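Read as amino acids, tokens; as here:

___
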Amino acid sequence: MPARPTSIALAPEARRQLAADLFNHVWALLETDPRTDRQGERMIDAAHASRFFWEDIGEPVHHARGEWQISRVYATLGRAEPALHHARQCLAICEQHGIGDFDLAYAYEALARACALAGDPDAARRYRTQAHAAAEHVAERDDRTLLLSDLADLGATTIKERD
């Protein structure tokens, strides 16, 4: 890879803080209702920027979480193709680095959400089933509860049966 431009070469702790702050800013925008079109664009920018800074300073689990968040942002904004791309990236990182538990389960959740948005209910149901199976291995009860809540919401609102 080319060297990072010196204009964005920050000390490691500053990069870590910026990545985390941007990640949290995205959450604030995801929870904003109603959200303006400009806030949606800023949410995309912040999610990508967070992932960018995690690339050098973070571990693979941070990379997977960044890809998951980008996928969620695009899914929230109704943009199926980039949601699918980043959900696939999230799963690939989990598989490549042996990341399981909460992160693997949420990789499947992201794929279910993106596939539902893309109009592929069969794939959405398949990934939702995989997420449910992975949820059994989520160590933290609160994490498992959050995941199951997201999956219930996903099932109720986005995975429609074919006529």
